[in-house]
Amino acid sequence: MASEVVLAAEGIRRRYAARGGVWQRRKGSVCALRGVSLQVNAGESVAVVGPSGAGKSTLARVLAGVEPPDAGTVTVGGVALNPGPESALRALRQTVQLVFQDPGQALDPRQRVGAAVAEPLVIRRVPRRELARRMEELLELVGLPRSRELALRLPRDLSGGERQRVALARALACDPRVLVLDEPTASVDASMRGQVVNVLEALRRGRGVALVVITHDLGLAACLCQRVIVLDGGSVVEEGATTALLAQPRHPTSADMVAVSRVAWKGWAEASDPRAER
Predict the structure, then answer these.
(1) What pTM did the predictor assign?
(2) Coil, strand, or helix at residue 56?
């Protein structure tokens, strides 16, 4: 039986105005995405990799419905994410949650951790008597023990890894089927990267959440993702199973990235060992 496609993009194009000079006047435009197409199955982990400026973060925002494409279609569970009633778009956006590279973009520095994680539950009208329990469950799900104590802290009181996992818990409060993660380990120190990888893999295996991992780090892709899509210049230049693509890249961009990243793979594999302390 074929796997269910939970997220698909077809012919996505996105162009931005280019500005310059003292007055920042418009000087033409820059094409960030050039007809990108992809599919993500339920419970699958897919890495979207490429050099800086390849269009990875733009694709993340388009897939999550944060900004619209200029052309092409994004479908979530077979339903097109097209302009329409805000209530319908909101329901689809909840199915695909974007976790930003910088947790500060998702967390209000003045809002305590418990309130930040519970906020999506309040919007979804979860009964008040259940909020505290659900909030604690979400924090524990992402590997944050002592959830009651942690819930009273502000984001500034947490480490980078803890803030990243709080942002992840907040995204999971919407009960998504897909997580789009923009450089999920970039703000985490090396000692914590393996823990973040283990949490994401547990979510995929245990809850069936599909992962779209936006990264320039092939070490992360090798440890976490089953399939790799390589972007360059806003276009897909190569795609394939992770092991095969990294072992024998065909496109020059892929080959260059493999050559640069190969030395980091061993360290990633050791840091992501499931036996490591969480």
Answers:
(1) 0.86
(2) helix
